[in-house]
Amino acid sequence: MGTTSVLIVLQAVLVVVAGLVFSRLYLHPLASFPGPKLAAATGWYATYYDIFMGGIMLEHLEALHKQYGPVIRIAPNTLHFSDVKAYDSIYTDRRFPKDPAFYAAFLADEASFGCTDIKKAKTRRDLLGPFFSRKSVLKLESVIQEAVGRFIVSLSQRIDAPQPVNIHRAFLSITLEVITTYCFAQRYNAIEYPDYGYPFVKAVQGASYGGCLLQHFPFLTPLVMGLPTWLLKMIHEESAALPEFRDRLDAEPSAKSMKEEAAILIGAGTETTGNACAVIAYHILTNEDVHRRLKKDLVEAWPDPDAPMPLEKLEKLPYLAACIYEGLRFAHGVVTPLPRIVTQPTEIAGVLIPKNTLVTMSSTFLHRNTDIFPDPYTFNPDRFLGKNPSELTNYIVPFSKGPRMCLGINLAWAELYLIIGNLFRKVDLELVDTTAKDMEWGAFLLPYYKGFVKANIQKVEGIQQFMEG
Would you identify the CATH topology of the domain 108-337+365-468? Predict the structure, then answer.
């Protein structure tokens, strides 16, 4: 091809691109919505902040809302909201399906999380829902209690250890053990693994980043899925544990949906709850008054640590509940805004949204809302001890809301009460080598923390029953 031909092709490409940009800026149904012109022109705007700037798109959204208002255009066909009323409208409306392009990146189109067909998703949830009901969780409470007991024993074996204990990974280990034992009656003994370094535990912390990478660069999906394990190990040794673990799941290799469901249950059930426990523990340990008060309340309600405390009794301890709720407000759960498709013109937070628009809102815009939670960056469990705590708890949405909310919400709540309750009743620990900088994070679906929560284990009690078992 000659120079002239190349120039003609380049000119044609430029004309097409210019026409597309002009159309998006001035002719698109969202053209009247405020926001950066570059974001309206191309999805690469979000890619830049998500991938190349280390997951700061969410932080950038806060600045954009201050500049442009409660509804902003953040991509050619996407709106993001900051008005708290919008959250329920977006995520509880059964008419709004999930965006296939976004969820395809998580390689689980047949699992309940990744399924974008509303009817199929409902059928899947109806099938699995009873297993994760409140009734089922209480029926299998002994499974969780046994795993938590082993967790406390494992901490007792690290008293006066020469190096601080990475309790962040310890929490990921116990949540992995609970989800695999509860769902598949299979123990992987991650709790007993040296330094809580079970390969899957180490790998899962980077899995959500991989999902975000594929979301922005979907053409990489076939390449990533086709990489052999040995090559994955050369590139990033810990990540190789993910496909190996997935293949070990107790599901027929031909049953794609079952394997995907299992992988999502294990990945989400490990990281979201494990991260929440780490964040809760960090804030309790860095607030001496909170720590002292929680310990006092637990000792008074639970005088004999060798006697097991039932979940339903722990749930009735107001200050423990307040600490967990406040911790979840800081942990957030999924932080990346999850897009839904408006299937017909709909009013959201007083604004008419055109058909086929993607609408999103991050949970952080509820958890940090100053009208609901004054001084939102201060850890203050007392805010949940008022006359009507439900008025506040309604705005705590780490498990999302509506018909597509987290399938394992009841199991997650049980874990939080049993793990945090047992930890602060039975274990004396001191935070070390951990600063506020370690708790900073980038948004890659879940928070991706810059460091780990570490502590010295000083004293452990209430383990006799598990030692005898």
Answer: Cytochrome p450 (1.10.630)
Q: CA-CA distance, 424 to 320, in Å (whole number)?
A: 10
Mean pLDDT of 23-46: 96
- Its pTM stands at 0.91
Residue 127 has pLDDT above 50, yes or no: yes
As beta bridge partners, residue 166 has: 454
Is-contact 239 231, C-beta < 8 A? no
Domain definitions of the chain by residue range: 108-337+365-468
At which residue do the structure tokens 């700037």 appear?
53
Known binding-site residues equal 406
Sequence-distant (6+) residues with CB within 8 A of 304 are: none
464 has pLDDT over 70: no
**Cα–Cα distance, 9 to 13 (Å, whole number):** 6
Query: pLDDT per residue over 400-444, tens digit each?
Result: 999 989 989 999 999 999 999 999 999 999 999 999 999 999 999
CA distance 402 to 94: 8
Question: How far is Cα of residue 372 from the mean position of the Cα atoms in its chain?
Answer: 22
Question: Which residue type occupies 355?
Answer: K
Beta pairing partners, 159: 457
Confidence at residue 183, expressed as pLDDT on a 0 to 100 scale:
86
Residues near 112 by beta carbon (within 8 Å), at least 6 away in sequence: 121, 124, 125, 128, 261, 264, 407
Annotated binding site for heme: 406
Report whether pLDDT(250) > 80: no
- By CB atoms closer than 10 A (0-12, 13-18, 19+), residue 39 is buried
Say how far apart CA 276 and CA 447 lie, in whole Å. 10
pLDDT tens profile 276-297: 999 999 999 999 999 999 999 9
Q: CA 131 to CA 261: how far, in whole Å?
A: 13
pLDDT tens digits for range 50-74: 999 999 999 999 999 999 999 999 9
What is the pLDDT averaged over residues 110-121? 85
